[in-house]
């Protein structure tokens, strides 16, 4: 979750109401118009391990700040997701779309998801499949109830199981181009220190609840590829405390982490760190601790412990904001992006750029959400070329 909503929000979203929802022929593949499970023949589930599947998924891209926006899809200034956008993403060379979705505001007090919302999510999944993209569908912005403490564990487990049972039943006939990701950046609000043993244990429990709930729905979900998360999707916390959930399906799990190192370069729009790596010329404008060697070392840890033992890694978010006040051409952002993307792929990690939809300074958007036009063709090319 990297929202970064610009101050002139209405300027970005003024035309949102005028964007027509494209009709998806893919909806019927796994659900009916009201979002209930369809009775059509199941899609194909190939005999691929998650490692083999991961090798077909790079590079990848997030439709951020859309279906995860609150209270509704267009409230954060992006138009309704449409077929033209996802066709453009595929044409640019991306192979996978991560679809962040917030569910809680579309559910009643008992956790029953609105049929209209389930149908809308299904429609957007259909757009991505029509475009020929893999889809990673998650639960996003659920932090007000998905709290990793013992005090909240029982209620959160029950709600998470009920939510994923509904989602999984809706999509149980979809083929293996659709993956489910159980949670997002689970943490205790305001606590950015190293996670306690309690936090780690409850997050590991959330992963098990997710896997068990999805598998219990049967159909293609019995062997669908699933994505589980380390604590707060932090590489170090994941490395130190992640426990792989028990899964009756062999070799059908991914691990998810996120990467925005160094923070002051990648996300801090108020700082003065704007250069990065070996090409940096001003020591005052760079943080040398998070250079190329740091990236390679972090990714090597993931490769050694997870990828090399049969569990591929999805880097579900990464990116660096534009800082045109210092670097109008975006030279350092492009160099960082090239290096991170290339190193990730070389270490068996699927990199997923976080696109929040906005092309202004200090933002992460790559595509115009209404038309699919490219805001930064050179940066898009850097991602695609370095994922080969």
TrEMBL record:
Q: What is this protein called?
A: Endoglucanase
Tell me one Pfam family matched here: Cellulase
Family label = Belongs to the glycosyl hydrolase 5 (cellulase A) family.
Q: Which domain of life is it from?
A: Bacteria
The terms under GO molecular function for this entry are: cellulase activity
User: Where are its TM segments located?
Assistant: none
Q: Which controlled-vocabulary keywords does the entry list? A: Glycosidase, Hydrolase, Signal
InterPro entries tied to this protein: GH (IPR017853), Glyco_hydro_5 (IPR001547), Glycosyl_hydrolase_5 (IPR050386)
EC number annotated for this UniProt entry: 3.2.1.4
Question: What span is annotated as the signal peptide, if there is one?
Answer: 1-22
Species in which this protein is naturally found: Roseateles saccharophilus
Q: Where is the Glycoside hydrolase family domain?
A: 68-358
